[in-house]
Specification:
The chain has 10 helices and 18 strands. By secondary structure, the protein is α+β, with helices and mostly antiparallel strands. It has 2 domains: 158 residues, Creatinase/prolidase N-terminal domain (Creatine Amidinohydrolase, Chain A, domain 1); 235 residues, Creatinase/methionine aminopeptidase superfamily (Creatine Amidinohydrolase). A hairpin with a 6-residue loop joins β17 and β18. The longest helix is centred in the middle third of the chain and has 23 residues. It starts with 18 loop residues before the first helix and ends in a 13-residue tail after the last strand.
């Protein structure tokens, strides 16, 4: 398997990714996890789960995630797509692997949702034998559901009281945790685009530019290279004192000489996310800024070095803290996890460095992919005392493979 980005096109002059084969492999993984969970059917509404099963790239409306498009997976059947009426004609013309598609309303208005459950979803479940699935074994049929709003859940359970609606998101997360070789190819390509986006934004980080100018330069490169979305809906560019504490939005603040500039835009390509970030300086850094940057740099590399089979996310967390401790900053980490899984989901389990109650311990296993993003900030530093550095990391049988390649600002490293 290549560990670099060959190119985003379906070229004839060399072997590249076969989308149909990858799609079939993903569906097979989901079916395997369904069987383990004892599900008769699986209904998903999360954008990343719908894409994983169907490859639908929909129009997304802000604030309507899990309310626009769904997919129903039944053993022995191709995934059935439930999508906005605006998508149906395109799906029928351009996605021949979808054998059955139904238009559904936005899942929020009670009467429309009730009609959809009664007249679209209910007949589907009957036609495919799901509502009768439990009769032969004297149990209720089990429908896995990943995420849905309350009006849909109440209509589903109210209209079909014999249907047992259970957790369908955990099986999907289990299917997605270890990336298939084809998924890694797509992640490499998304990360290559993210590197280019970051380079454009770094070049725009000049005295007198605004944070929004920097974000615009990055986003222009993202779309020029065929990217779909930034890693987050709100591209993250923060400069100077906006990084202490981090303001996780882009504003009209002017970048000034001596400001640290943090850039976290990333890229989505073919449904997969490249999530990487850099902090640079406009002009000449102060000694304190160099100390913070060097602590984050050491934490990043020492933590990644611990991400190998045989170690856990707890082992990596200790390594992150050890790297920062050499600069006296182990107690200044941002109050958020230090790393998260990434794939067809922009942010997904497992997590590294999560400190909230219930955080599980995971062993690192080949095929896991993480975005590792330590952030340390200290108050009262002129030009800002907050630094985050982020890399895309693939767990292998040996050393971790760092997908991202954007350079680090050497002016900020202590000699």
């Amino acid at each position: 398997m290549d560990q670099f980005a060959r190119g985003p096109f379906n070229a004839h002059y060399e072997e590249r990714l076969e989308p149909a084969a990858l799609r079939a492999q993903r569906v097979a993984r989901a079916l395997e996890q369904m069987e383990i969970a004892g599900l008769d059917a699986l209904l998903v509404w999360k954008d990343e789960n719908v894409r994983y099963l169907t490859d639908l790239r929909p129009q997304l409306i802000a604030g309507k995630s899990t309310a626009l498009n769904g997919a129903l997976l039944i053993p022995g059947q191709a995934p059935i797509l439930l999508c906005s009426g605006g998508e149906v004609d395109r799906v029928r013309q351009t996605m021949p692997w979808i054998q059955e598609v139904h238009a559904v309303p936005i899942i929020e208005e009670r009467d429309l949702v009730a009609g959809m459950v009664r007249d679209i979803l209910g007949p589907l479940l009957r036609e495919h034998g799901i509502l009768n699935a439990g009769k032969s074994v004297a149990r209720s049929p089990r429908l896995g559901l990943d995420e849905a709003n309350m009006v849909f859940y109440s209509e589903l359970t109210g209209q079909f009281p014999n249907l047992r609606v259970v957790d369908g998101d955990s099986p999907m997360l289990a299917a997605r945790r270890h990336k298939l070789p084809g998924e890694i190819v797509l992640l490499e390509e998304a990360t290559a685009i993210a590197d280019a986006v970051t380079a454009a934004a770094v070049a725009a980080s000049q005295e007198g530019a605004r944070e929004c100018d920097v974000a615009a330069a990055g986003m222009a490169t993202l779309f020029r290279l065929g990217g779909e979305y930034a890693h987050v809906m709100t591209p993250f560019v923060a400069s100077g004192e906006h990084m202490a504490p981090p303001h996780r939005i882009t504003s009209d603040k002017l970048i000034r000489h001596g400001d640290l500039v943090f850039i976290d835009i990333g890229a989505c390509w073919n449904g997969y996310f490249g999530d990487m970030a850099r902090t640079v300086v406009c002009g000449t850094p102060s000694r304190r800024q160099q100390e913070v940057f060097s602590a984050v740099y050491a934490a990043l590399h020492e933590g990644i070095a611990a991400m190998r089979p045989g170690n856990t996310n707890v082992d990596a967390m200790r390594a992150f803290h050890a790297g920062a401790a050499r600069y006296g900053l182990a107690d200044r980490f941002f109050s958020l996890f230090i790393g998260h899984g990434v794939g067809i989901g922009a942010n997904e389990p497992p997590y590294v460095g999560e400190t909230l109650p219930g955080a599980p311990t995971y062993a690192f296993e080949p095929g896991m992919v993480f975005a590792i993003e330590p952030l340390i900030w200290v108050p009262g530093v002129r030009g800002g005392g907050g630094v985050r550095l982020e890399e895309m990391v693939l767990i292998t049988e040996g050393d971790p493979h760092i997908m991202s390649r954007a350079p680090f600002d050497q002016r900020l490293l202590l000699a």
